[in-house]
Design goal:
Structural class: alpha/beta
CATH architecture of the largest domain: Alpha-Beta Complex
Number of domains: 2
CATH topology of the largest domain: Quinone Oxidoreductase, Chain A, domain 1
Bound molecules: NADP nicotinamide-adenine-dinucleotide phosphate
Low-confidence stretches: none
Mean pLDDT: 97
Number of strands: 16
CATH superfamily of the largest domain: Medium-chain alcohol dehydrogenases, catalytic domain
Strand content: 25-35%
Shape: globular
Length: 307
């Protein structure tokens, strides 16, 4: 099959021929229709995480997929050939920008007909990250005040909308050019990080969701009420600040979860959360898609149409 691959760390992305993934009893094979990009793909490609996660080559780029089931493993009960499904697969099954991908039954969700494959592919990694940050780790509740950093990004666009669904008051940081978009997603207060300092604009928040790290993370402690929480996906050691400000600090890596993904997909089907697509590229343009991601300026998700 064809796949967008790298042959070594730091390599340019090219479309090459590789073996199709083999079927496992607990999994399905899908013909991939669309894939979406995440910053972790470029981080892995550069080799920054090789101490923790050493890639084998050729490495197929991408995690998020949407496609049609073409083969079903012996133990799979809930999915049949022809079903449209979407997932952020686990590390062993990763490899999204390819003609075929293997997905575990418990990591996938059924794609509703109302979502295109491009929209569906944009959901799993970013959407599950936002869900796990706000709900699983952040325990966000109706009436809480939450600050979501980088509200215009892949994760942020889902996070704003999920927080509004929970009934929270949402402040978000982005640059002025994206203010209208984040307001349209439900943000109550928009802080332009280029002209304003968020720590001077707000205080006594229940939760901050950080995805930028550095000074943004450390300054975030200043805007949280005593007993509040800071959840980061770009973590560093902040135990001293957490105890100084009496704030619960959580840092985590998202994990695949089909049932949780289905809950989010239900919100999307009902029209309460909408995917925001920055741009779409063809299979052959996968390298350009990753160049766009590397600018750090994407508004929502970047998608590669595979079929
Ligand atoms: N731990 C995990 O499990 C996990 C999971 C997912 C993502 N992540 C990490 O989370 C981060 C965000 O991911 P993503 O997919 O949302 O990235 P992304 O889509 O590439 O984010 C781009 C957005 O960030 C905004 N931005 C950049 N600098 C900003 C700043 N200083 N203040 C406010 N907004 C800023 C940009 O808006 P402007 O153009 O207006 O600057 C742009 O819209 C990445 O570092 C990623 O690696 C971690």
């Amino acid at each position: 099959m064809k796949a967008a691959t790298i042959q070594s760390y730091g390599d340019v992305i090219s479309v090459t021929e590789i073996d199709k993934p083999s079927l496992k009893d607990d999994s399905v094979l899908i013909e991939v229709h669309a894939a979406s990009l995440n910053p972790i793909d470029n981080i892995l490609r550069a080799g920054y995480l090789k101490e923790m996660l050493d890639l084998s080559f050729p490495h197929v780029m991408g995690y998020d997929v949407s496609g049609i089931v073409v083969e079903v493993g012996a133990d799979v009960k809930s999915v049949k050939v022809g079903d449209a499904v979407m997932a952020r697969p686990n590390q062993d099954d990763a490899g999204a920008i390819a003609q075929f991908a293997r997905l575990k039954e418990n990591e996938l969700a059924i794609k509703p007909a109302s979502l295109s494959h491009a929209e569906a592919a944009s959901v799993p990694l970013a959407g599950l990250t936002a869900w796990q940050a706000l709900i699983t780790k952040g325990n966000l509740k109706k009436g809480d005040k939450v600050l979501i950093h980088a509200g215009s990004g892949g994760v942020g666009t889902y996070a704003i909308q999920i927080a509004k669904q929970l009934g929270a008051y949402v402040a978000t940081t982005t640059s002025g050019k994206n203010a209208e978009l984040v307001r349209s997603l439900g943000a109550d207060l928009v802080i332009d990080y280029k002209t304003q300092q968020f720590q001077e604009e707000i205080s006594d928040y229940d939760l901050v969701f950080d995805m930028l790290g550095g000074d943004t993370l450390t300054d975030s402690f200043k805007v949280i009420r005593k007993g509040g929480a800071l959840v980061s996906i770009k973590g560093q050691d902040t135990e001293d600040l957490a105890s100084k400000y009496d704030v619960r600090f959580e840092w985590f890596f998202m994990s695949p979860d089909g049932a949780m993904l289905a809950e989010l997909v239900a919100l999307i089907s009902a029209g309460n959360v909408k995917p925001v697509i920055d741009s779409e590229f063809t299979f052959e343009q996968a390298g350009e898609a990753y160049d766009r991601l590397a600018t750090g300026r994407a508004v929502g998700k970047i998608v590669v149409s595979v079929k």
